[in-house]
Amino acid sequence: MEQAFKIRPASQEQKKLLAQIESEAGTSINQCYQCGKCSAGCPVAFAMDYTPRQVIRLLQLNLMEEALGANSIWICASCEMCSTRCPREVDIASLMDALRRQALVSGRVTDKKVAAFNKAFLDSVRRFGKLFEAGLLLEFNTLTRQFFKDAELGLPMLKRKKVHLLPEKIKGNEEVKKIFERVKEIGGE
């Protein structure tokens, strides 16, 4: 059922935060006229508390706390279907990503496991230049204190060579590290 929202006057702090999120995403929420094509094409909208269209509407109505606290920003698969379907070229997937980063920075993470997965994934790519699945699993399970979660799957996957005990080296790992350094320089995590 559609939720009713009332427009709130935006504080200077909210305006600044929204401008920062739009700048990071490289898009403007004011371009959205609420057609709903983004939500209609979203493969995970059924699991969201707010559809992509509703997240944009929260931002348009200056409901920043609700947007940052939405589970939807963590459920978003970043598949970019919403951005592709948008007739106004609003990059909704980038907005969702910017909202996730802001929620992490401001400590408004609603799903600690998603944040832990995000950290473990990026740590793996930072260290090895690509995903090291076994390392990701170990770090994620340690961060979430689920030490033996999925342990029974390890040996069969090793036998089938679906995962490896040691990370593989890639060409260009130094370039990947430089990307992470540049992100840190501009204020990223």
Q: Would you give an account of this structure?
A:
The model has no long low-confidence stretch (mean pLDDT 86). The protein has two domains: 12-105, Alpha-helical ferredoxin (Fumarate Reductase Iron-sulfur Protein, Chain B, domain 2, Orthogonal Bundle); 112-184, no CATH class. With 189 residues, it is an all-alpha fold. It has helices at residues 12-25, 37-41, 52-60, 64-68, 72-75, 81-85, 92-105, 112-128, 133-143, 151-159, 173-185. It has eleven helices and no strands.
Summarize the structure.
By secondary structure, this protein is mainly alpha-helical. The protein has eleven helices and no strands. It has two domains: 12-105, Fumarate Reductase Iron-sulfur Protein, Chain B, domain 2; 112-184, no CATH class.
What layout of secondary structure does this protein have?
Layout: H1 12-25, H2 37-41, H3 52-60, H4 64-68, H5 72-75, H6 81-85, H7 92-105, H8 112-128, H9 133-143, H10 151-159, H11 173-185
Using the coordinates shown, work out and report the CATH topology of the largest domain. Answer: Fumarate Reductase Iron-sulfur Protein, Chain B, domain 2
The pLDDT mean sits at: 86
Rg estimate, integer Å: 19 Å
Instruction: List low-pLDDT spans.
Output: none
Structural shape? globular
Helix content: 55-70%
What order do the SSEs take from the amino end to the carboxyl end, as H and E? HHHHHHHHHHH
List keywords for this structure.
11 helices; mainly alpha; Fumarate Reductase Iron-sulfur Protein, Chain B, domain 2; 189 residues; single chain
